[in-house]
Amino acid sequence: MSPVLLDTGPLVALVVGTDARHGWAIDQLKSMAPPLITCEAVIAEACFLLKREKLDPTEVIRLARAGLFEVRFDFGREAAVLQELMTRYRDQPMSFADACLVRLAELHPQSSVWTLDRDFKIYRRNRRSSIPLISPFD
Do residues 8 and 113 lie in contact, with contact meaning Cβ atoms separated by under 8 Å? Predict the structure, then answer.
């Protein structure tokens, strides 16, 4: 099975039962083979969003400990590429988490990004290739 790269939106939707995309996220997850792949930036965004809504951010950590996802990203090794990506897409503007996921898509060429973010329809891996998405707007 091809790797799935986990973005913030679906992660939050999995945790928040009242989220408009919760049911969709649960249904999508049933067809995926954990562990999904993500980066620390996605985890930080998800924890921030949950805390802002007065929800428990440790649920994100619980899901990681349960094996749903793992971090396979080394910022130190990828910093120059991230800077280039964020510069190229500065008109979006590209978030740090999005840049990390685009880079992960380059590092895992058979992967798809599981996202609620339409900007991924614009982003390209290796400057030219669209990124396969798992999203409600496909």
Answer: no
Q: What is the DSSP string of 35-79?
A: PEEE-HHHHHHHHHHHHHTT--THHHHHHHHTTSEEE---HHHHH
- Angstrom distance (rounded) from CA 78 to CA 41: 13
- Structure tokens, 10: 């679906």
For Cα atoms 111, 41, 98, give the angle at the middle one, nearest 5 degrees: 50
At 26-35, the pLDDT tens digits run 999 999 999 9
Mean pLDDT of the chain: 97
Q: Compute the CA torsion angle 97, 105, 23, 116 (nearest 10 deg).
A: 50
Q: pTM for this structure?
A: 0.96
CA distance 109 to 11: 22
Q: What is the distance between the alpha carbons of residues 23 and 85, in angstroms, rounded to a whole number?
A: 33
